[in-house]
From TrEMBL:
Residues 443-658 form the Histidine kinase domain. This is histidine kinase. GO terms for biological process: cellular response to phosphate starvation. It comes from Pedobacter ginsengisoli. GO terms for cellular component: plasma membrane. PROSITE patterns: HIS_KIN. It comes from the Bacteria. The lineage of its organism: Bacteria, Pseudomonadati, Bacteroidota, Sphingobacteriia, Sphingobacteriales. The chain crosses the membrane at residues 184-205, 212-230, 250-268, 280-299, 305-326, 333-355, 367-385. It holds the Pfam family HATPase_c. Its EC number is 2.7.13.3. Keywords: Kinase, Membrane, Phosphoprotein, Transferase, Transmembrane, Transmembrane helix, Two-component regulatory system. It catalyses: ATP + protein L-histidine = ADP + protein N-phospho-L-histidine. InterPro entries: 7TMR_DISM_rcpt_extracell_dom1 (IPR011623), 7TMR_DISM_rcpt_extracell_dom2 (IPR011622), BphY/WalK/GraS-like (IPR050351), HATPase_C_sf (IPR036890), HATPase_dom (IPR003594), His_kinase_dom (IPR005467), HisK_dim/P_dom (IPR003661), HisK_dim/P_sf (IPR036097). One of its GO terms (molecular function) is phosphorelay sensor kinase activity.
Length: 662
C-alpha cells in the first residue's frame, strides 16, 4: 500500500510539473526570460496542428523548461511552447521572442470568448499585422475586458539550425521601447567595424598591400554573419537580401574564414617564419570550400555542425601558427596572438553553450560581437605594429644605403684625387723626361760632337806629321778637360738611359762611408788642385750605411762635379758626415760668388734645369741634378738644398746598417 501511494505521489508531482506556471503580469514584472515558467513539447514530424497539441497538453505530454532560456538544439523538429499568464496591468500584454533568426513562428493566443487568434512571423516568413518583426519578434496579445482570468499562449517555432529561445513578457508600461545595453553594445560593434573597414580600405588604396585588402574583405564578412544574421539586423535590408542571408549564412561565413586565413598567412609571412603551416592553411581553405558547398546545397543544419568543427580547428591552427611566427622573430605577431585568443574564447564559450554544457544568458549572444570587435581592433594594432616595423627596416635600409653611397662617393673622390695626383706626377715626369730628351739631342749634337771633332782634328794632324811632339803634348793637355767632360757626360747619359728604360731598383748593401768617399776623392784631386780650390773634408768618424753602393757613387760623383764646377778659384768645398737618430747625413757644400743672385727656388724645382757653365766656363749637360734626385729617391731619401751665406749645401740621409738590422 505504501509503494502504491508513493507511485501515485510521483505521478501527481510529474503532472503538476508538466503544467505551465501561471505568470502574473503587472507593471512591476521584471523584463526577464521565462524558460523555467513554461512547458514545451517536441514535434518531430513538424505536422501537429493546434488542436492536436492541445490534446497532448491535456494528456500531460508537455515537459517543463529546464533553464531560463530554452536550448532546443539543432534539429528539423518543431517545438510547441505553452505559456499561461494573467495580465494584471491596465494595458496590453506582449510576448517577445528575443531571437532574430527563427525561421518560422506561429503564435496562438486565446480570447475572452474562447476563440484563438493566430499570429505568423519568422526570418523566412512575412509577419502578421500584430507582430513587430525586427531583430526580435514582439507579439501584441489580445486584451480581455476584465483581465482577471488566466490566458494561454501556444507558440510554435521551427528552424533548421541551433535554436536557443529567450522568451519574455511585458506590459505596455514595461515594454522596453528604447535601446538596451545590448543594443548599445551592438551599435558599438557596428561602429568599430565601419571605422576599421574605412581606415584599412584607405590604407590599401594608398599602399596596395594585399594584407589590407584581405582585412577589408574579412571585416564585412564578419558583419554579415554576426550582425545581419546572428543579431538579426538583416531586417533593415530588402526582403530578398534578408532571405538570402538567413538561408545561406554559413556560405558567407565560409568566404569570411577564407579571407581571414589569407590575411593570417600574409601577416605572419609564413613562407619565412613558419613554412610548415602553409599546407595546413591550404587544408583549412579546402574545408571552407566544403562548408560553402554544403550551405549552398541547402543543408543548413549540417552546415551549422560543420561550422562548429571548422571554427574550432581554424582558430586553434591560426593561434598556434601565430605563436610559431612570434618565436621565429616576427614580433608583430604578439597582438595577433592576443586577438585570436579573444575570438577563440568567445567561440569556445558559444560552442560549449550550444552543447548544453553552459547555460544560455542574454549576453551569450553578445560574446561573438564583442570577441570579434576586440579581435579586429587587436589585428589592426598588429598591422600598425607591422607597418611601423617595416617602416623602421626600410628607414634603416635607406640609411645604410645612404651611408654606403656616401662612403662610395668619398672613396671615389679619394680615388679620383689619388689618380689625379698620380696623373699630375706622371705628366710632370713626362715633361721632365721630354725636356731631358731635348737636352740629350742637344748634348749629342753639340756638347759631345765638338770635343770629339777637336780630338779627331789633333789625330789627323798627327797622322800627317804636321805637329811636333811638343805641339802634340800641348794640344793634348789643352783637350784634357774636354775628355774629362766627355767621360762624365757619357756616364750620366748611360745612367739616364737606363732609368728611362726600366724602373730604378735599389739593391742595398752595407758599406763603410769614409773609405768609400776617400777613394772617390782621389779621382777629383787633380781637378781640385788645378783649379786652386781648397778642400774641407770632415770624415773623422766612419759610418756603416745600408744603401745601393752604385747609386751613392753616382750621387756623390755628380755632387762633387758640381761643387768643383761652380766654386771660384781660391775658395773651398767640403764634405761632412753627421749622424742622426738612425741615419747618417751626407752633405757636399761649396762657396759661390754673388749669393744674392743665387736662385735657390729654381735649383730646388725638379722641372727646371739645363746646361750651365762653371766659374771657368766648364759646361755640363744638365742631367746631374735629375739623376741625383732619382737615385736618392730610389734609396728612400730626399735631396735637401740650402743656402747659408755664401755657402750652398746639398745633403741627403742614408740609413745606418745597425738600424736596418733592428
Amino acid at each position: 500500500m505504501r509503494r502504491l501511494l508513493i507511485l501515485i505521489a510521483v505521478i501527481l508531482f510529474a503532472k503538476i510539473q508538466a503544467i505551465a506556471q501561471v505568470i502574473y503580469l503587472n507593471d512591476k514584472t521584471p523584463y526577464s526570460n521565462l524558460g523555467k515558467q513554461v512547458t514545451y513539447i517536441e514535434d518531430k514530424t513538424a505536422l501537429l496542428t493546434i488542436d492536436k497539441v492541445k490534446l497532448l497538453e491535456k494528456a500531460g505530454k508537455f515537459k517543463p523548461g529546464e533553464s531560463s532560456i530554452l536550448n532546443l538544439g539543432n534539429t528539423k523538429s518543431a517545438f510547441w511552447i505553452k505559456i499561461s499568464y494573467v495580465n494584471q496591468s491596465s494595458g496590453k500584454a506582449y510576448l517577445i521572442a528575443d531571437m532574430p533568426n527563427i525561421e518560422y513562428i506561429d503564435c496562438y493566443a486565446d480570447r475572452a470568448d474562447g476563440t484563438w487568434i493566430h499570429y505568423k512571423s519568422g526570418a523566412l516568413k512575412s509577419s502578421s499585422i500584430l507582430v513587430k518583426s525586427e531583430n526580435r519578434y514582439t507579439f501584441s496579445l489580445p486584451q480581455n475586458a476584465h483581465q482577471t482570468g488566466v490566458q494561454h499562449i501556444f507558440l510554435r517555432v521551427k528552424t533548421d539550425n541551433y535554436l536557443p529561445l529567450p522568451l519574455k513578457m511585458a506590459t505596455s508600461d514595461t515594454l522596453v521601447s528604447g535601446p538596451t545595453l545590448r543594443d548599445y553594445l551592438e551599435i558599438v560593434f557596428m561602429g568599430v567595424l565601419l571605422s576599421l573597414f574605412v581606415y584599412n580600405i584607405f590604407l590599401y588604396m594608398n599602399m596596395r598591400d594585399k594584407l589590407y585588402l584581405y582585412y577589408c574583405l574579412y571585416v564585412p564578412g564578419l558583419f554579415i554573419y554576426v550582425s545581419l544574421y546572428l543579431r538579426g539586423y538583416a531586417y533593415l535590408l530588402s526582403p530578398k537580401i534578408r532571405d538570402i542571408i538567413n538561408i545561406y549564412p554559413h556560405a558567407f561565413l565560409a568566404v569570411t574564414v577564407v579571407f581571414g586565413i589569407l590575411f593570417c598567412r600574409r601577416f605572419l609571412n609564413l613562407r619565412i617564419t613558419a613554412p610548415k603551416f602553409l599546407k595546413i592553411y591550404l587544408a583549412l581553405i579546402f574545408l571552407c570550400v566544403g562548408l560553402f558547398i554544403v550551405s549552398i546545397l541547402g543543408y543548413k543544419g549540417i552546415a551549422a555542425n560543420y561550422t562548429q568543427l571548422l571554427m574550432s580547428i581554424s582558430v586553434v591552427t591560426l593561434w598556434i601558427s601565430g605563436f610559431a611566427a612570434y618565436r621565429a622573430g616576427h614580433t608583430p605577431a604578439g597582438y595577433y596572438i592576443l586577438a585570436w585568443t579573444f575570438i577563440a574564447l568567445a567561440i569556445l564559450a558559444v560552442i560549449l553553450t550550444l552543447a548544453k554544457l553552459f547555460p544560455f544568458t542574454d549576453y551569450t549572444f553578445d560574446l561573438l560581437p564583442i570577441g570579434s570587435a576586440i579581435e579586429l581592433l587587436l589585428l589592426s594594432f598588429a598591422m600598425g605594429y607591422r607597418y611601423n616595423a617595416v617602416f623602421k627596416r626600410e628607414q634603416q635600409t635607406r640609411d645604410e644605403n645612404l651611408m654606403l653611397v656616401s662612403d662610395q662617393n668619398l672613396h671615389l673622390e679619394n680615388l679620383v684625387k689619388e689618380r689625379t695626383l698620380k696623373l699630375s706626377e706622371t705628366i710632370s715626369e713626362l715633361e721632365i723626361s721630354n725636356s731631358v730628351k731635348n737636352k740629350l739631342f742637344s748634348i749629342i749634337a753639340h756638347d759631345l760632337r765638338s770635343p770629339f771633332n777637336s780630338l779627331t782634328g789633333i789625330f789627323a794632324l798627327k797622322d800627317m806629321d804636321m805637329l811636333t811632339l811638343e805641339d802634340y803634348k800641348i794640344l793634348l793637355t789643352e783637350n784634357q778637360k774636354h775628355i774629362e767632360t766627355i767621360n762624365s757626360s757619357l756616364n750620366n747619359l748611360l745612367y739616364w738611359a737606363r732609368r728611362q728604360m726600366e724602373v730604378v731598383n735599389s739593391v742595398p748593401t752595407t758599406f763603410e762611408l769614409k773609405p768609400f768617399i776617400e777613394k772617390l776623392l782621389l779621382v777629383y784631386l787633380p781637378l781640385i788642385h788645378k783649379k786652386g780650390i781648397l778642400t774641407n773634408i770632415n770624415l773623422s768618424e766612419s759610418f756603416s750605411a745600408y744603401a745601393d753602393e752604385d747609386h751613392v757613387q753616382l750621387i756623390l760623383r755628380n755632387l762633387i762635379d758640381n761643387a768643383i764646377k761652380f766654386t771660384p778659384s781660391g775658395n773651398d768645398i767640403g764634405i761632412t758626415l753627421k749622424k742622426q737618430v738612425d741615419t747618417v747625413e751626407i752633405c757636399v757644400w761649396n762657396t759661390i760668388n754673388n749669393p744674392e743672385q743665387f736662385d735657390l727656388e729654381d735649383i730646388r724645382n725638379p722641372k727646371t734645369g739645363g746646361a750651365t757653365y762653371g766659374t771657368e766656363n766648364e759646361k755640363g749637360i744638365g742631367l746631374g741634378l735629375t739623376l741625383i734626385r732619382e737615385y736618392i729617391k730610389a734609396n728612400d731619401s730626399k735631396l735637401n738644398i740650402d743656402l747659408h751665406g755664401d755657402k750652398v749645401s746639398f745633403s741627403f740621409d742614408l740609413p745606418l746598417s745597425n738600424s736596418h738590422l733592428l
